[in-house]
Structures are given as C-alpha cells and as structure tokens.
Write a structure and sequence with these properties.
The chain is of the alpha/beta class. The chain contains twelve helices and 16 strands. It binds nicotinamide-adenine-dinucleotide.
Length: 367
C-alpha cells in the first residue's frame, strides 16, 4: 500500500483504482468522481477504453495496476468468476478492496477469500450496496426495537424485464451463475438475512421457460428463518413489473421509479412494515392487536441518501481503519451459500437445510 495524501488540507485523499470498467464499474467511476476525499487514479480492464472518457491511466491487468497505479484501494467490478482471485491479488498487495457482489461465483471459492481476509487481516467490503440504504437501517431499528412485535413472516418480489441484448451481447450473462438468482435475488436474500436473521431452510422452484436459456429467468423461494418466522420471495428477469427494490428507490436512475413502491412486506405480532417506503401499520398502546381493531399507518421518517454514495463513504472508513465492514467476506459468503442452497433445492426438489449445506461445503473444502 502507498501512503495517504492530504485532500483540501484536512481529509486524507484516498487513491482509488477501479478493476473492470463495464456496466457497474462505470457507475462506480461516476460515484468516485463525485465523492469528496477520494480520487480515481487508475483503471484496469483488458477491453479498449476511451482515454478521453477515462481521464486517468488505463492498465490491461490487475497486476499492472497494482505495480504502477499507486493505489490505496480498489473497487473490483469484473465478471463474478474472477472476483476471488482478483480480490486475493489486491489484498496480498496490501490494498483495501470493495468487491462487487456476489462475493464469488460459488460458495466453495468464496471460502478461499474468507480465509485469506482472515490470514492477512485484509480490509475488504462486499458490495451489497442496498444494506447502506437509510430505509434498511431504519427498518432494522423498527424490527430490533420491537415496533412489529415478534417477527412472523416476510414476503418479497423483484421482477423487471432485462433487454435481450443483456444476454445476446455479453456471453457470461448466459452462463451458469449469471441467472436471476445469483445476479439479482442475491441482493434480496442478503437483505432478508440482514433484516430477518439467518435462514434455516430453503425450498425453491426455478424456471427457464420465459427466455429458454440455460440460466434460470424466474425463481420462487420459500424460507424458514432460524427465529421460526417464514418467508417467500419471487424473482424474475423476464417479467415486466414495477415491483422490486430497484423500482422503489431512486438509487439506480436507469430504472423507472415508483415513489411508494414496495419490495418487501414484513409482518409481526403487533404490526407490519413495508420496505423501502417504510409504511408502518400498527395499533395504539391500549388497542388489542387483533384483525378487527383499527390499524393505523404512519411512514417512518428517514433522511434520503443514495446506497452507493453511503457505501463508498463507509468503504473509505474501512480503508483507513475507522470502521469495520458492514458486509464482511464471511457475511457475504453466507448469502452466497443461501443462494446456492436455493439452487440445489430447485434442482433436486428437496428442502435444503442451509447450515448443513454450508458445513458439507466447508468439509469438502477441507476446512
Ligand atoms: N451492485 C449491483 O447492483 C451490481 C449491478 C450490476 C453488476 N454487478 C456486479 O458487477 C460485476 C460486473 O458486472 P457488469 O454487469 O458490470 O459486467 P460487464 O460485463 O458489463 O463488465 C465487466 C467488465 O470487466 C472487464 N474485465 C473482464 N476481465 C477482466 C479482468 N481480468 N480484469 C479487469 N477487468 C476485466 C470487462 O472487459 C468488462 O468491462 C459482476 O460481479 C456483477 O454481479 C453489481
């Protein structure tokens, strides 16, 4: 790692590189350019990039960027199958890492990264950016402070029709691991774990009927949480809908925005909450919480903030040792294990015990 420079006479300016300047990497570049205390100093991507647009040194490989880029930290947004090796290469060079989700293409390889982070005491944050959205922190507070009573159930939906070119033009989008489960539902499953706790069992059905590709386009999941609560989640990249996190927040401007949109409905013994619009339904203190009593709705107040901007600010805290990562490698690997357990269930038709799934995979990996 190289030393810090001073920005505006006060704040340490972080020299940041972006590895993989495709769809997501370019968004990160824009967020970095707009943020204080951080400077884009290098990009690594084997593709030819427009130097005028980039306006910083461009390297063909991660090794060249690490050798010549003088970076303190990197954001890795290359294809998922490269995440683990790229992150390990950067951590071994002493560079802090913000690694795009999913942490790896499969749970077994994510364990290599978890071990390496621990061995090196590496600074690594996984880019499950939605956890940084203010509505998520507020929803967690409501759950933790008992505003809903005991958690009973949760339901969620994410459905948006991707353009055909997404699959036609980018070969890895048609390959195993790039279906709606690992590309999209991984975000929702991560949030459901974050909000509702670990999942004990998962049952899943997957369909390739709408697109006819090898990778699934639509999935339906049933979840049993360790707390005893149950959940259901539907995801599709073939079905048109206004329902889902991306359409219910303003964080990705390329999605149509429905301001009162709902991605998740959380129900407890004393109230209910929809997320991310934070409509809270409940009873007054002296009202019996039963189905015929009047139910009131209030919107929990929260200051607006973009997830990606908040994630970047938090990452700078991780880079400089001021904050522990909100999404560690170990945490993100558990989300990936849940996705894989769901894929196993979809394949076999059997309910999968998630803790046993993780233990078996760890034993196979010799841990
Ligand atoms: N957080 C989110 O909401 C979100 C959204 C989209 C994608 N992603 C994640 O971001 C990652 C990239 O997805 P994308 O849609 O931007 O893909 P993409 O195909 O558009 O971009 C990948 C880029 O990586 C480059 N690349 C390939 N091999 C490389 C290497 N060895 N070193 C450096 N760069 C290399 C490619 O040339 C390309 O420019 C994936 O892991 C994906 O899951 C996250």
């Amino acid at each position: 790692m190289t030393g810090e420079r001073v920005h505006s006479g006060r704040l340490p300016s972080t020299r940041l590189g972006v590895i993989g300047a495709g769809f997501m990497g370019r968004q990160h570049i824009d967020f970095v350019r707009a943020a204080p205390g951080v400077e884009l100093v290098a990009v690594a991507d084997p593709a030819a990039l427009d130097p005028a647009e980039l306006d910083c040194p461009h390297f063909g490989t991660t090794a060249q960027l690490l050798a010549n880029g003088a970076v303190d930290a990197v954001i890795i947004a290359n294809p998922t199958a490269l995440h683990v090796d790229t992150a390990i290469e950067c951590l071994r060079a002493g560079v802090a890492v913000l690694l795009e989700k999913p942490i790896a293409g499969d749970y077994a390889s994510s364990l290599r990264l978890v071990d390496e982070v621990e061995r090196l005491r590496g600074r690594l944050l996984v880019g499950h950016h939605r956890r940084h959205h203010p509505a998520i922190a507020r929803a967690r507070e409501a759950l933790d402070d008992g505003a809903l009573g005991r958690l009973v159930a949760v339901s969620g939906l994410w459905s948006a029709r991707k353009e055909d070119a997404y699959f036609d033009d980018i070969p890895w989008h048609r390959e195993a691991g790039a279906g709606v489960m690992l590309i999209n539902a991984v975000h929702d499953l991560d949030l459901l774990r974050h909000l509702c706790g670990e999942v004990a069992e998962v049952q899943a059905m997957a369909s390739t009927a709408a697109r006819g590709l090898d990778v699934e386009d639509t999935v339906s999941l049933s979840l049993r949480f360790e707390s005893g609560a149950v959940g259901s989640f539907l995801a599709s990249d073939a079905g048109v809908s206004p329902w889902g996190w991306d359409q219910s927040t303003e964080e990705t401007l390329s999605f149509p925005y429905f301001p009162d949109g709902v991605a998740y409905r959380v129900v407890g013994t004393r109230g209910a909450l929809s997320v991310p619009n934070l409509a809270h339904y409940g009873y007054g203190p002296s009202v019996s919480p039963d189905w015929h009593s009047p139910l009131s709705r209030t919107y929990l107040p929260v200051a607006p903030r973009g997830s990606f901007q908040a994630q970047l600010e938090h990452f700078l805290g991780v880079v400089h040792g001021r904050e522990d990562p909100l999404v560690s490698a170990e945490d993100a690997s558990r989300t990936l294990a849940l996705v894989e357990a769901a894929a196993r269930s979809a394949h076999t038709g059997a309910t999968v015990d998630v803790a046993r799934f993780r233990a078996d995979a760890q034993a196979q990996a010799g841990r």
